[in-house]
Amino acid sequence: QSVLTQPPSASGTPGQTVTISCSGSSSNIGSRYVFWFRHLPGSAPQLLFYTNGRRPSGVPDRFSGSKSGTSASLAINGLRSEDEADYYCATWDDSLSAWVFGGGTKLTVL
Amino acid sequence: QVQLVQSGGGVVQPGTSLRLSCAASGFSFSSYDIHWVRQAPGKGLEWVAVIKYDGGHKFYADSVKGRFTIFRDNSKNTVYVQMDSLRAEDTAEYYCANGQYCSGGTCTDDLFDIWGQGTMVTVSS
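Structure tokens for the assembled complex are given below, as produced in the milestone run.
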């Protein structure tokens, strides 16, 4: 049971916009920036965006994030087949004094 | 070349120990916090631990607290995680990554833009 809750799966067709949600609490998302990662098995995770508005160089602006209260979301615009991957949210939890990850969302491009 | 190179993984029996290393090159390692993150087979990402740039503070996931110890040697540009009392559920691919950059008394937000290549740890009898 993850501290941050994500839907286990999401899907979309090429060109569509897909949104992945991440729900937490006041001790994590409610008071901290949320980080979004993409992960393909066999390779290291990649930071996509975090809710301070920072997108690392090389990450397309098709990826964006937002936060409202104790929830956050990642939007992927103009979906492409290469976007198929697992996506994770993460943040620091003040109550646990630890970083926490969501359970991950497997994105399928139909 | 900016990189983190990991070593030390392998197959060990339950109850034994293993040490992973994460060696940095191409950037000012001693100014960065370093995280360890893992992924068990078929599971999601799990944060393991973080160590401040100067080694002064360390934080652990509850799942490894008391069994894992993170430490660093800035003279060798290397962070280690000593894993004791290993359990089957510690079987995972382990990654190190950069966190906050700290200089002159101020720190950035965590960066997570440099990752090690991953190293597999298998705990099995």
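The mean pLDDT of chain A is 95. Strands of chain A lie at 9-12, 18-23, 35-39, 46-50, 63-68, 71-76, 85-93, 98-101, 105-109. Further analysis is deferred to the final report.
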